[in-house]
Specification:
Layout (H helix, E strand, L loop, with lengths): L8 H25 L4 H6 L5 E14 L2 E3 L8 E5 L11 E4 L2 H7 L10 E9 L7 E13 L12 E3 L15 H12 L7 H11 L1 E2 L2 E6 L6 E3 L10 E5 L21 E5 H7 L3 E2 L4 E3 L2 E6 L3 E3 L5 H14 L10 E3 L9 E3 L1 H10 L4 H14 L5 H4 L3 H5 L2
Keywords: Endonuclease, Hydrolase, Nuclease, Signal
Protein name: Endonuclease I
Organism: Pedococcus dokdonensis
């Protein structure tokens, strides 16, 4: 006797659908577990935590600048889908928080250039560029296995709209770079001290309230009209203290808005003519500001801004136009000498706090509307280490 088992058509169809669903789910799970490419990560800047695989192609130091040699720090790396990529638009800028710097920073580990890594972290803008921040894992570090792909020669990948302005300085370093930058930025419109009031209301405008300015040290947003010398008003802070070189408020370094900023009258007085360094006691009305007998430390968010203003002043005023030759040094308590410190600290501040949107806008407004010259260290922060190695 032959036993025949018949499968109903409906049950067969259901079984087939379940099989298809299982296969699709398995495929999706496998895909989700795979790291993203750099191109995918650039397109997916949604704040999610993802793993990304790519090649280390340099050290980002500004939105459109990636060092491929002469590395200045261990704060970030740039990833690309190819070890030979030179276009910054095809790169992902990866923040290196403290725990990863000694192992992955290019200043400490230049041999990591061109190696393949997988980074897990938050996909979000860094240096105003497609990025990945707060990494939780970094693995790999092996050389490119493709023998047809070679690491490009050491160069600095730069694509900047200011290249024409800096044309005579590009490609130079050290004293040659310094000399060229001085020749470029000394061509400026000189303001009066009264004009500085109006300029600061433009250059330091609160991006969230066009009626206000932002005080540099305190970070307070205050009405543009509330300026003067009274308690809780804002006045004109000389970041390079005007007694360091004794240039006062005369037209020139005393009115150069590249280093003049709005600040609370009391906080301005507390800073006085102190040099810059880390540490001290808390400053009233200035959260995260510190001072002692010979130095002042601003809040973290503007440490780089302060440093780059000091570096600008040193390059702009070289002693060849009737003004003192200004220069940062390793001292504090410089008094009336044309120096300000502490150089090593200022360099660290500049590296640790790269230019943000506010600082870049300020630089552009000064160039477009007021002085018609630029702060080169906002446009090219990597030049700091070239001039002050």
């Amino acid at each position: 006797m032959q036993l025949t088992i018949r499968v109903r058509p409906r049950l067969a169809a259901i079984a087939a659908l379940l099989l298809v669903a299982f296969v699709a789910t398995t495929a999706r799970s496998a895909w989700a577990a795979s790291p993203l490419t750099v191109a995918q990560a650039i397109a997916q800047q949604d704040g999610s935590s993802q793993s990304v695989t790519g090649y280390i192609v340099g050290e980002p130091v500004a939105t459109s600048t990636v060092n491929r040699s002469g590395f200045t720090g261990d704060l970030a790396i740039a990833l690309a889908d190819s070890a030979s990529q030179t276009s910054t638009s095809q790169m992902l800028y990866v923040q290196l928080t403290t725990q990863w710097r000694s192992a992955w920073g290019l200043k400490t580990n230049p041999s990591k250039l061109g190696t393949k890594v997988t980074v897990t972290g938050q996909l979000t803008a860094y240096f105003a560029h497609a990025g990945q921040k707060s990494p939780t894992a970094i693995t790999g570090g092996t050389p490119d296995p493709d023998p047809t792909t070679t690491t490009p020669p050491p160069t600095s990948t730069t694509s900047s709209p200011t290249d024409t302005y800096y044309a005579s300085a590009l490609g130079k370093s050290g004293s040659a770079l310094r000399s060229s930058l001085h020749a470029i930025i000394r061509n400026q419109t000189v303001l009066t001290y009264d004009q500085v009031w109006t300029a600061l209301k433009d250059t330091d405008q609160d991006p969230n309230n066009s009626n206000n300015v932002i005080e540099i040290y305190s970070g307070r947003s205050i009405a543009k009209s509330d300026n003067g010398g009274g308690v809780d008003q804002w006045n004109r802070e000389h970041v390079w203290a005007k007694s360091h070189g004794d240039f006062g408020t005369a037209n020139g370094p005393g009115t150069d808005v590249h280093h003049l900023r709005p600040e609370d009258v009391t906080v301005n007085s507390d800073r006085g003519n102190l040099d810059f360094d880390n540490g001290g006691s808390a400053v009233n009305q200035c959260s995260d500001c510190w001072r002692d007998g010979d130095s002042f430390e601003p809040r973290d968010a503007v440490k780089g801004d302060v440093a780059r203003m000091i570096f600008y002043m040193a390059i702009r005023y070289e002693g060849d136009d009737g003004w003192p030759n200004l220069e940062p040094n390793e001292s504090v308590g410089n008094g009336t000498a044309p120096n300000i410190g502490k150089l090593s600290v200022l360099k660290a501040w500049s590296a640790g706090d790269p230019p943000d949107a506010f600082e870049k806008r300020r630089n552009q407004v000064i160039y477009d509307t007021w002085q018609h010259n630029r702060n080169p260290f906002v446009d090219h922060p990597e030049w700091v280490s070239s001039i002050w190695p």
